[in-house]
Amino acid sequence: MSVHAALARPVFGTPRGRHAKPRSAWPRIAVRTLFLLCAMISAAAVLGGGWPPVLLVVPAAALVLLVAGIVKLRTAARQIDTIFAEELTREAPAETGVDIEIS
User: What CA–CA distance (Å, rounded) separates 35 from 41?
Assistant: First the structure.
């Protein structure tokens, strides 16, 4: 792939910027609603079954760790994409060996 083709291709999966169209909010709302519904059913099952409420701590901690891990992975992926995009804009001619910026 040429440098110009790589620069023309978007670095991230979704377009960002002034002219990007906003994404639909209904998938996020649906997932959050489903999660809250599952959390309420779990809490009702634990409390209604006479089990100690401390049993809810383990699934909550696992969920927090999962979300934190996903956020860290997305941040790392963005940083790696940024580094690759910066490297694609830099070229070193074979005869001089000096880095030049491509505009």
Answer: 10
